[in-house]
């Protein structure tokens, strides 16, 4: 039996009015399509439960909230702080038959990333069922997608083609990012504890760069430097630099207290 993990995620869609954002969500969540223009007033949230495998032994039960926004730019600018805040992923949607809808994502995506931070971005080129009216070339799509490292996919909300693939690919990326972040934080905590513990034992003698690398096998210079910078910023250590790449580190009284192991009292 796989280990089951549970997580919540927020996905925010963006793009001009009429590109099919609402229809894509409706197709993915309900497997329905309405052959009339669905005009979103303000913002709307849909929810879906997904099962996402991670490796051979872990299964993630992902509760995804999908946010839909009205396409008018004035409204976007009015609500962008709350709309994009806390999003784990972004989906930019354009209409294969409207070149302007692709170019407008050059405004939508940076605006979203300012609020959401470094999250995955996927580009969805909708209405592939209207290829006879195609107004966007592959080069156009690639040129827009590359600066944002955004994979792109052609979909049709009308027929359902590749709609599940688009949303499922983003769900997999969200889960992968969550585990990578969890692992990175565990490594950071481990390095932090080791550094403080070593310095607490050395007290006024401190530790040189070479001594750190003799003891902490496998740690690279950039990771150690970043951790020492954080600790110094918190007032836990003092770093004395000798040139650009050599240093000696001393623990502060505050850092010594943080580096001591906790002793539990017997009841």
Write the layout of secondary structure elements.
Elements (H helix, E strand, L loop, with lengths): L2 E12 L6 H10 L12 E12 L3 E12 L3 H12 L4 E7 L3 H5 L1 H12 L4 E6 L11 H8 L6 E3 L8 H40 L4 E2 H7 L5 H13 L3 E5 L5 E5 L1 H7 L8
Parallel strand pairs: 1-3, 1-4, 4-5, 5-6
Antiparallel strand pairs: 2-3, 7-9, 8-9
Helix pairs in contact: 2-4, 6-8, 6-9
Q: Summarize model confidence as the mean pLDDT.
A: 87
List SSEs in N-to-C order: EHEEHEHHEHEHEHHEEH
Please tell me the CATH architecture of the largest domain by its name.
3-Layer(aba) Sandwich
Structural class: alpha/beta
The side-by-side strand order for the widest beta sheet comes to 2-3-1-4-5-6
Number of strands: 9
The CATH class of the largest domain is: Alpha Beta
N- to C-terminal distance: 39 Å
- Ranges where pLDDT stays below 50 over 5 or more residues in a row are 261-267
What is the approximate shape? elongated
Structural description of this entry:
There is one protein chain. By secondary structure, the protein is of the alpha/beta class. 43% of the residues lie in helices and 24% in strands. It has nine helices and nine strands. Strands 2-3-1-4-5-6 form a six-stranded mixed β-sheet, with helices on both faces. A hairpin with a 3-residue loop joins strand 2 (43-54) and strand 3. Helix 2 (73-84) packs parallel to helix 4 and helix 6 crosses helix 9 (253-259). The radius of gyration is 25 Å and the shape is elongated. The model is unreliable at 261-267 (pLDDT under 50).
